[in-house]
């Protein structure tokens, strides 16, 4: 079931480019080990990473309103889903992002796969990090602080695969 759910998310985020075998890693809850940078080791991963290749268009897998758009802050776009009020975070993107307040439909382009980190610099191998936070989670009530550090989850994010 998890594999099917993540495959569904992959196809929704990448359209035709997502029709190939999904490439993903660092699942929700995974603990960084092995070749991870020393500062990541032992940390909780609160999303899932999808890797279709650098520059692949990222499509909105949910309909809603962009509540955060920050190309220079880990290449982040956060969409508040209309149907549920859940927050969907998409990180490490590059390119042109929809502005805060923009309404997006499923399939609208929200960026390109990149490896953007702090200050807008390329810091990671190209991938899309996706997180889900339920309606009413603390970050929803703190203005523009929708971009969360995925290594310091405090129980607010939920398994991405629960939604697709």
Describe what you observe in this structure.
- The protein is mainly beta and 164 residues long.
- 8% of the residues lie in helices and 30% in strands.
- 36% of the residues are buried.
- The model has no long low-confidence stretch (mean pLDDT 81).
List the helices and strands and how they pair.
Elements: H1 2-14, E1 24-25, E2 48-50, E3 57-59, E4 64-70, E5 76-81, E6 87-91, E7 93-94, E8 103-104, E9 109-116, E10 122-133
Antiparallel strand pairs: 1-2, 2-10, 3-9, 4-5, 4-8, 5-6, 6-10, 7-9, 9-10
What's the short version?
The protein is built from one helix and ten strands; from the N terminus they run αββββββββββ.
Label this structure with key terms.
single chain, 164 residues, 1 helix, 10-stranded antiparallel beta sheet, mainly beta
For the record, give the distance between the C-alpha atoms at the N and C termini, rounded to a whole number.
10 Å
Tell me the major beta sheet.
Answer: 10 strands, antiparallel
Order of helices and strands: HEEEEEEEEEE
The protein's oligomeric status is single chain
Overall shape: globular
Poorly predicted runs: none
Mean pLDDT: 81
By DSSP, the count of extended strands is 10
Portion of residues within helices: under 10%
Q: Tell me the radius of gyration.
A: 14 Å
Task: Output the number of helix runs.
Answer: 1
Into which percentage range does the β-strand content fall?
Answer: 25-35%
Structure class: mainly beta
């Amino acid at each position: 079931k998890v594999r099917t759910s993540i495959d569904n998310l992959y196809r929704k985020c990448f359209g035709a480019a997502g029709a190939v075998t999904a490439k993903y890693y660092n699942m929700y809850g995974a603990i960084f080990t092995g070749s991870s940078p020393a500062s990541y080791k032992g940390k909780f991963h609160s999303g899932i990473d999808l890797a279709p290749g650098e520059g692949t268009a990222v499509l909105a897998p949910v309909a809603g309103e962009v509540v955060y758009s920050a190309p220079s802050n880990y290449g982040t776009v956060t969409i508040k889903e209309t149907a549920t009020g859940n927050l969907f975070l998409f990180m490490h993107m590059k390119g042109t992002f929809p502005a805060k307040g923009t309404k997006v439909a499923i399939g609208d382009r929200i960026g390109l796969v990149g490896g953007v980190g702090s200050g807008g610099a390329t810091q990671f191998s190209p991938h899309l990090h996706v997180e889900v936070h339920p309606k009413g989670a603390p970050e929803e009530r703190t203005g523009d602080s929708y971009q969360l550090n995925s290594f310091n989850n405090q129980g607010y994010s939920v398994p991405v695969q629960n939604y697709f």
